[in-house]
Amino acid sequence: MKRFLFSILTVFTSMTIFSQSRFVQTDFLIGGVGDAQKLMTAYVKPWANMFGTSLSGGWYNTARPHKLFGFDLTITANCVIAPSAERTFNVNTIGLEHMQVNPGSPTSIAQTIAGNTLKENDEPSMDVLKNDGTVAVANAFQMPNGTGIPITILPMAQLGIGFIKGTEIMLRFSPPINYGKSGTM
To answer: Is the pTM higher than 0.85?
Structure first.
């Protein structure tokens, strides 16, 4: 599970969404790796769920396997929409240890990657805490905006080939998908 989360973290931090002028890739790390992992997990969770759901859809067309060397080619596009409840998260409820929402922030509700693009200064501003719980760095960074893309469409080509004793092999291909300024998956 940790390797999966690290892979998702790596993929999404490399996307250009993090090149916003008021947020850089290292901002999540300012309060330590543990808090960074919690923030990043909450932020990218909808796209990870949507992508996983897209990959798992449409694997079969019939329950009967192909006869020896029988085959089929299927071209599909799986579409998954993030539920509205997964487009935001409350920063105060994810168990941060070395960061907190600045008391002067307009809200503690942050956008996820599938959330809306807000006006500047509408996201929570984060403070970094010392070990004794006092503020070390006030307004260290602002949580990032969402992409405004709550949907993922995954086109695929699938080839199923029948082998001996009622077995078959399926091969699947999905081209890279460009989300404009938000990056490519």
So the answer is: no
